[in-house]
């Protein structure tokens, strides 16, 4: 198994978060709880679940971008190894748990724990990559 597999799961998570966000927003639009004319102007006060989903979707384009870039670099430079694979799966697992605790359980302490763990895993992965290419 290569690093591409956890990368594809991370990309799948991004699409899952997007569909979760769309689902929550469609429910609010059809229930007429938001003014449709305010949506293009970003003036809508979305309910909590839709706001959490929006926040999580935006976060998918922060630290996960560094994960995606790293995996591509490692595959291209052939510096991936079994430990990086384990770390990649740990990173993706933490991001999935971050998603669950952020949107559905609304437990900020555990969400922060999983964010922090995933960030440390990613930092370790980058350090290992840098050492592997002798920088």
How would you describe this structure to a colleague?
This protein has one domain: Membrane associated eicosanoid/glutathione metabolism-like domain (Four Helix Bundle (Hemerythrin (Met), subunit A), Up-down Bundle), CATH 1.20.120. The chain contains five helices and no strands. It has helices spanning 4-30, 48-59, 63-77, 82-104, 108-132. Helix 1 packs antiparallel against helix 2, helix 2 (48-59) runs antiparallel to helix 4 and helix 3 runs parallel beside helix 5.
Number of strands: 0
- Tell me the name of the CATH class: Mainly Alpha
Structural class: mainly alpha
Quaternary structure classification: single chain
Question: What is the first-to-last residue Cα distance?
Answer: 27 Å
CATH topology: Four Helix Bundle (Hemerythrin (Met), subunit A)
Order of helices and strands: HHHHH
Helix content: over 70%
With helices defined by DSSP (H or I, 4 residues minimum), what is the helix count? 5
Total individual domains:
1
Identify the overall geometry.
Answer: elongated
> Uncertain segments of ≥5 residues (pLDDT<50)?
none
CATH superfamily: Membrane associated eicosanoid/glutathione metabolism-like domain
Strand percentage, roughly?
A: under 5%
Q: Judging by the overall fold, what is the CATH architecture? A: Up-down Bundle
């Amino acid at each position: 198994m290569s690093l591409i597999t956890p990368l594809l799961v991370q990309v799948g998570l991004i699409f899952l978060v997007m569909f979760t966000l769309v689902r929550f927003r469609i429910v609010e639009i059809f229930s007429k709880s938001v003014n449709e004319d305010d949506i293009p102007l970003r003036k809508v006060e979305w309910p909590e679940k839709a706001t959490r989903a929006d926040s999580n979707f935006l976060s998918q384009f922060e630290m996960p971008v560094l994960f995606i870039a790293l995996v591509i670099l490692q595959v291209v430079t052939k510096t991936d190894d079994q430990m990086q694979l384990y770390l990649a799966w740990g990173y993706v697992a933490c991001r999935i748990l971050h998603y669950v605790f952020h949107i559905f359980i609304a437990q900020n302490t555990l969400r922060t724990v999983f964010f922090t763990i995933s960030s440390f895993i990613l930092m370790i992965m980058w350090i290992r990559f840098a050492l592997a290419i002798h920088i």
